[in-house]
Amino acid sequence: MKSSQTKRNLIQATIDLIMDYGLEKLTINKVIKQAQSSKGSFYYYFSNIDDLMKETFLYTLNHSLVEFSYCKEQSFEENINQFGHYLIKTSKKKSSAHAIMFLWISKCFQDENYKKQFQAMRKQIIEENTVSRELQKMFQVDIEWLYMCDIIIIGFLVHCVLHEDEDELLSIWKQFVTVIMSHKS
């Protein structure tokens, strides 16, 4: 239990440092100092700074989704509409989880190494996050559908940050749900 806490401390220190100083100034030594850990602990969990960044991205993705769960008593469409409400609510919090995800994505446009890591994580990001696993289990959605939704959700989150009118965002989301319902197998 203590060892998993050490890993979480290293990841949280990474999040804090990125939020304060950005990706470019992140170093192993700064992470260790912020986490009040040791190099040995760092290298026990991560092979290098890129490995830490990958784990931090996946952690923030799942952490951003942890508060949402599907309701078995509601239809698939109602659950997807609830997920839209959840995305709007969480985007308004200006969470570090969303910031880390978008910083990582933007870094992919600048750095081929980040792009390759992101591509290698694609399955974990889209198919194996907490919401996708629950969707697959409860509603037997196919993988192609998850990839289509991921594309739309990223754009929707950007609009959630840019638009203040939640009613307009909900209207946009409901139009999206109508379209994806016609493609669900």
From TrEMBL:
Q: Name one Pfam family in it.
A: TetR_N
Q: Which residues cross the membrane?
A: none
User: One MF term in GO for this entry?
Assistant: DNA binding
Q: According to the UniProt record, which residues make up the DNA-binding region?
A: 27-46
Tagged with keyword Repressor: yes
Keywords attached to this Swiss-Prot or TrEMBL record, sorted alphabetically, are: DNA-binding, Repressor
Keyword Repressor part of the UniProt annotation: yes
Q: Where is the HTH tetR-type domain?
A: 4-64
Signal sequence, renumbered to the chain: none
Q: What is this protein called?
A: TetR family transcriptional regulator
Originating organism:
Paraliobacillus ryukyuensis
